[in-house]
Design brief:
This protein is an alpha+beta fold and 340 residues long. The chain folds into two domains: 21-158, Alpha-Beta Complex (Nucleoside Triphosphate Pyrophosphohydrolase), CATH 3.90.79; 191-303 and 312-339, Nucleoside Triphosphate Pyrophosphohydrolase. It has helices spanning 19-34, 36-45, 74-83, 116-123, 130-136, 142-157, 230-242, 294-302, 323-339, and strands spanning 47-52, 55-60, 67-69, 71-73, 95-99, 105-110, 126-127, 169-170, 177-178, 185-186, 191-199, 203-208, 220-223, 246-257, 263-272, 288-293. Helix 1 (19-34) crosses helix 2 (36-45). 31% of the residues are buried. This is NAD(+) diphosphatase. Keywords: Hydrolase, Magnesium, Metal-binding, NAD. Its cofactor is Mg(2+).
Length: 340
């Protein structure tokens, strides 16, 4: 029986401060989005994440053992821009991302038209492709890095009105763009994607596309078609990609994913009849798909690749920042409890 969105795994929202503090911060953020002058003023005391052709700037941690997102004070960034021969006022082209727990606004800025090596030298860091950066920075920083890139890309690809062909104009925060010719307002959007971990009760099904890194297998995923519910999209994707019929599904969580162009991942667990597990792969979509035991999954979770420059294991799963990893970890935990 299909039980849509029946949670069998807990999914809790944890706020780092008191609820009243969270409400205050969200209302402040909304004011910055809507009030251009307030946003300009906030930028003066805020911090900016730099991107060079959509690659974020990273710096080594104080211990020197890892990397973190480089967050520059606006005043410091203005000095750096002048040193590399750029008008410091391009800082005003930054886009608002969020506010920290201390109500410090954070912005993102694309500087891809500037000399990369000169900027890296002046900033004391390096620009790293976002996929690689995810392996290098702390997990809590990954959503911010992804959001910064996604917002920059959206503005780059929405500079003209789809109805009139006329240029669109952003507001100061970058929360929308307007075509003054048609009056249409455009807001940043994410494409809904279902991602599902299929199980037959004792094994889980993972697949890989040809574009995946060597040895990596992940949960099945696919874009929702126009007019589809999440449940309908999930059933269709599993049937299309591996030829299996889902009997039950449970919602797990969601995540913004910046690839290929800002996806909204809706993660679920699904079960199939243990007597009907013959996989029939759609070769146009997948390179391989197969069932994995609890022991194989446990070993993969314990031997995650830590450095993208090194040879990965023969079989590995997406890293912890990806919601696919969350699904796999939840399944393994559920199997462990069942066995006890």
């Amino acid at each position: 029986m299909l039980q849509s969105f029946k949670p069998i795994f807990s999914c809790n929202l944890v706020l780092s401060r008191s609820f009243s503090g969270y409400v205050s911060r969200m209302r402040y953020l909304m004011r910055l989005k809507e009030d251009d002058e307030a946003c300009r003023e906030a930028l003066k005391s805020g911090k900016v994440l730099l991107y060079h052709k959509l690659s974020p700037l990273l710096r080594k941690t104080s211990s020197g053992s890892g990397y973190k997102l480089a967050s520059l004070k606006t005043s410091d960034l203005e000095q750096i821009l002048e040193k590399v021969g750029k008008d410091k006022h391009i800082v005003n082209e930054s886009f608002l991302l969020e506010c920290t727990d201390k109500d410090e606004p954070q912005f993102s800025l694309e500087v891809g038209d500037l000399d990369r090596s000169a900027l890296e030298q002046e900033c004391g860091g390096m620009f790293v492709d976002l996929r690689k950066a995810f392996f290098m920075i702390p997990g809590p920083e990954s959503p911010l890095a992804a959001k910064g890139q996604a917002l920059l890309r959206w503005h780059q690809t929405n500079s003209f009105c789809s109805a009139t062909g006329q240029p669109t104009v952003r507001n100061q925060s970058g929360s929308y763009r307007v075509c003054h010719s048609s009056g249409i307002t455009y807001y940043p959007k994410m494409a809904p994607v279902v991602i599902v971990l299929v199980s037959d009760g004792s094994r889980c099904l993972l697949a890989r596309q040809a574009m995946f890194p060597k040895g990596m297998y992940s949960a099945l995923s696919g874009f929702c078609d126009m007019g589809e519910s999440v449940e309908e999209a999930l059933l269709r994707e599993v049937a299309e990609e591996v030829g299996l019929e889902v009997e039950d599904l449970q919602y797990s969580g969601s995540q913004h994913w910046p690839f290929p162009q800002s996806s909204f991942m809706l993660a679920c667990h699904a079960t199939v009849n243990p007597d009907k597990t013959q996989v029939n792969i759609d070769k146009a979509e997948l390179e391989d798909a197969r069932w994995f035991t609890y022991e194989e999954i446990t070993e993969a979770l314990q031997n995650m690749p830590r450095d993208p420059r090194r040879e990965p294991p023969v079989f590995w799963v997406p890293p912890s920042y990806a919601i696919a990893n969350q699904l796999i970890q939840e399944w393994a935990n559920h199997q462990q409890l069942s066995r006890k």
